[in-house]
């Protein structure tokens, strides 16, 4: 069985590990962590708890050597460095919570270095590719109008898939030409929206949403509705984008986050301040936003290599 497999339930763990997992989940809830984040952390720490239990270790008995053995086993089982780093981050949070509550004396994960992650640059579409993708989406049917509005807005505001589906009708302020976005950790930000995106959303609300909402248009506050009148899920957003990417014959792995990456990179290309881009993306630290300066640097190096006679 690989280390990704999970069997049984937390109730089958020894009481000390059950208490540890419940404590971490309670703290994540207190920090308003997203359901997806809490679920991922829960899976990762439960897998470690099962491994440690099989080795006869309770939380207070875990040392950094045991964590290194666990990380090595994950690698032997085929886990990518990014996966190992993610799991160690979850375990680090677990022991941080235990230490803060006096259940362990120290955090053994602080002595275990995460594997270096490969520095891959995000997928970014050229402005012409974005235009080809968005302009290829027709506006004849309710679903086409919805998709056109959804992806125009995603690119115009740099939205995550999770942020697209949590938009409600009042989220769009047409007068102020901005969108109220509920980001990670329940943080709200206001992002300017361009004329093309606002016009697409207005057409969708007027001509398509009533048809999707059915007999009770006020029953569901979500801005973007499924054909059954319910709030979309992130998997719906990804699936619909794949449809239009295929029809537009855009190359590469294009996903909703690629629209967000393109939004940030095109703003940087146009001279926008990095701090302003950070605020619009909802990044807690500007260091996260700086990846787009590496994208721009890589693009310039490529252009230089192609054009300079002595490159």
UniProtKB/TrEMBL annotation:
One Gene Ontology cellular component: cytoplasm
Keyword Cell cycle carried by entry: yes
One Gene Ontology term from the biological process aspect of the record: DNA transposition
Cellular localisation: Cytoplasm
PANTHER family, per database record: INTEGRASE_RECOMBINASE PROTEIN MJ0367-RELATED (PTHR30349:SF41), PHAGE INTEGRASE-RELATED (PTHR30349)
Source superkingdom: Bacteria
KW Cell cycle (keyword) present: yes
Pfam families tied to this protein: Phage_int_SAM_1, Phage_integrase
Family listed: Belongs to the 'phage' integrase family. XerC subfamily.
MF (Gene Ontology): DNA binding; tyrosine-based site-specific recombinase activity
Quaternary assembly: Forms a cyclic heterotetrameric complex composed of two molecules of XerC and two molecules of XerD.
The protein's name in its UniProt record: Tyrosine recombinase XerC
Domain Core-binding (CB): residue ranges: 15-99
Active site: 160, 184, 257, 260, 283, 292
Entry function: Site-specific tyrosine recombinase, which acts by catalyzing the cutting and rejoining of the recombining DNA molecules. The XerC-XerD complex is essential to convert dimers of the bacterial chromosome into monomers to permit their segregation at cell division. It also contributes to the segregational stability of plasmids.
Tyr recombinase domain: residues covered: 120-305
Stored InterPro entries: CB (IPR044068), DNA_brk_join_enz (IPR011010), Integrase-like_cat_sf (IPR013762), Integrase_catalytic (IPR002104), Integrase_recombinase_N (IPR010998), Integrase_SAM-like_N (IPR004107), Tyrosine_recombinase_XerC/XerD (IPR023009), Tyrosine_recombinase_XerCD (IPR050090)
Keyword set, alphabetical order: Cell cycle, Cell division, Chromosome partition, Cytoplasm, DNA integration, DNA recombination, DNA-binding
Organism placement in taxonomy: Bacteria, Bacillati, Actinomycetota, Thermoleophilia, Solirubrobacterales
Species per Swiss-Prot/TrEMBL record: Paraconexibacter algicola
